[in-house]
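Much of what follows relies on a compact textual record of a protein's fold. A complete example follows; check for yourself that the lines match position by position.
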Amino acid sequence: MATQSTTQRKTAARKAAATRKRNTNATSRQRAAAGKKAAATRRRNASVRSAKAAQTSAKQTARSAARTVEAGAEASAFTAERLAQQAERAVLIPVGAALVARDNVVEATRVYTKRTSAERELKRFERRGNTARNRVRREVKRTRTRVERELRQRRTQATRLVKRNRLEAERQVKSVF
């Protein structure tokens, strides 16, 4: 009977060890999934930023190129070949920048291919907005409280000063008369 109890304990210990191992593996997978999700979010945000930067750069480049072309047309020193190269460059730069921006936008939108992922992102944005709103509310409340406290302190100091000066003036008047 004692050996059966020992056997049961060993079996229970093996099962517990297996459960701990399974739980540890599940936690590791969850951490890995969270890390991958965060990395994807960082990549998506970076691509959106770079797309906006590329778009702005393309606009600036187009304007700059247009100005360059105008200046080149007015200057008699430029040859026809040089002018053609500048015009071609003025067209190719914005086109290339637009294609880079398009690639970045396509990469960023891959996350929203499923309704559930889009809803999850929207909920995340909502939570972040809610947090920011609450932070601003707390800051406004703290500032208001601080200003009110300083106002009360200054009012009290002014009242004390006026009272002290009035009493001092009355004493001086009494001493003269």
